Amino acid sequence: MHQRRQRPGHLSPTDQVTLAAAERRRLQHMAHSPSAAEWIVQRARILLLAAQGHANVAIARELQVSRPTVLLWRKRFRRFGMPAVLEHPTPGRAARLSSAKVEAIVQATLHTTPPGARRWSLRTMARAQHLPRSTVHRIWRQHGLSGPNRPWKTVAA
Predict the structure, then answer these.
(1) Does residue 1 lie in a domain region?
(2) pTM score, two decimals?
(3) Which pLDDT score is estimated for 8?
(4) How far apart are CA 157 and CA 151, in angstroms?
């Protein structure tokens, strides 16, 4: 016998969010607080609507978020409870370059020259450091080392 596939946005019993009275009050307070961070308000509203039995697609549409965002917060709340709601978001991917590597690139840019040239180009620095040009460019921009009017002087050859 075939197992029936759920329609997208349809709830299964495992998706239900059940709130204790204290949790419901706290989420309602967060959802209507003018001073709460936007990310807390959004999470609280997602969970309140989920607890009322709204489907993921309906919640996503009403709050103008993606369906995966709704699913994420249902899952996190079920696993970790209220502490998950209050966790600060960590935007983006974790840095893969150490601060020592970034510092090495900055120091090499300021205090050395490539063989046979007066100053580093993105390509030569990227090749020397075994990194993509875009990474070197980002580091240079962050440290004010890129652009036509570079504020740093090249080391005399």
Answers:
(1) no
(2) 0.52
(3) 54
(4) 19
